[in-house]
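Holo prediction. Input below; ligand is adenosine-5'-diphosphate.
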Amino acid sequence: MTDQQLDQSRLGGFTYDPAPESASVARIADAYGLFIDGAFTDPGDHEQFVTLNPASARPLATVAHGSTADVDRAVAAARRAFPSWSTTTGSQRAKYLYRIARLIQERARELAVVETLDNGKPIRETRDVDVPLAAAYFFYYAGWADKLDHAGFGPSPRPLGVAGQIIPWNFPLLMAAWKLAPALAAGNTCVLKPAETTPLSALVLADILAQAELPAGVVNIVTGDGATGAALVAHPGVDKIAFTGSTEVGRLIQQRLGERGTHLTLELGGKGANIVFEDAPVDEMIEGIIDGIFFNQGHVCCAGSRLLVQESIADEVVRRLLRRVEQLRVGDPLDKNTDVGAINSAAQLARIEELTVAGEAEGATRHTSSCALPTEGYWFAPTVFTDVAQSHRIAREEIFGPVLSVLSFRTPDEAVAKANNTKYGLACGVWSEKGSRTLWVAQRLRAGVIWANTYNRFDPTSPFGGVRESGFGREGGRHGLEAYLDV
Ligand code: ADP
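Structure of the complex:
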């Protein structure tokens, strides 16, 4: 019997019944304005653009396209709010942050459904990862707000001023939390620009900020596209830019700000290596590889998109991996049994397709899950490439999709050399039963984050960020405060 037949016979012909979460809790409006100075503007005052549900390619709502004048008003509101917010006692600021964290928990189901509808990621992930972690970051930084004097940055560290924060579409709510929570704890005021394909959860968050009675202007949320982001970067009233997104745009922003001396942190792309030694705990490691690349459809800057497996176990690992890939449930993101959801946009799908076609053309062997894909919306079946050479584009370029490239190595030195053979340096994973080997490898890897016998594990207490073309600056932990303090 083949592995596939064996899996089917074990299931005894049973299939999963649909287990859909209701979309009605999302309460999405037809049209949204901008959140400036503590209130929503009238949608009719702005040019509007459509945000789609990527699982169906149907419109969810229209959202305001923030103009240069809107960015101006948002920055002015943040500037007016700064003197009072920055001198509010730390314990008072903490109260607001705790309140926001609790409201995120109270409205968790609504946020999870909105995020799943707008982004395409499975409800299992928004419910269990994105939303609880967003709350956790607010709780964590609430704890720091009244302890800044004791954080090791001098006796009374000062905030930077107005922070312009530009975030991507892969973790829309969580990235908003990563940016806002430390900035507010440190006493800054903010103008946040969500990504154009996923603005809705930030707009629910705006409603939560109003519900928490956060003083007007402390956080302003301006939806729009790259032009709106560029207007924020160009604004002379902004003291700090925090950007998460592509390396190309990050480079552009760095050039723009270079002349002005504005504070900057960049969290950019990656091509993470998951390194598997022959003594690794096999079952956990297979799940770790799967999670490392197929979590959030691989739309993860720190995704373990290169598997480096020791040659002695390569055949066995690939066999088990392909079997596990066949078991992944791809489809309706609102179904609680779904493992892999929709690709976020037509543009992203086209990029994934282009790179996988290049992989085949360059001589790698493609293994694609035989799962059925929905006929509407943007979908890509989980895919593994074997026979990958380091020179192939699929081994060098960030695919940002559910596509894994498998390479092999013989010695720890070779593993390190191959893992470091990238322009990026965001994250790596090391799988081995032997702690001394893990540490030896970890010390030699050029990456900001290294996981041992796990992957894609996020925690508010732990700093996250890259080196080389993956950016600079850290988010999370005590280090995350430093990015918003004048130290
Ligand atoms: P991706 O390729 O993953 O969509 P981008 O870097 O294009 O990543 O987008 C990340 C965020 O940066 C989004 O909010 C986007 O609107 C914004 N953005 C895009 N271009 C610019 C720009 N020139 N200046 C500032 N922000 C931008």
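The pocket of adenosine-5'-diphosphate is lined by residues 166-168, 193, 195-196, 225-226, 229-230, 233, 245-246, 249, 252-253 (CB under 6 Å). That is the main takeaway for now.
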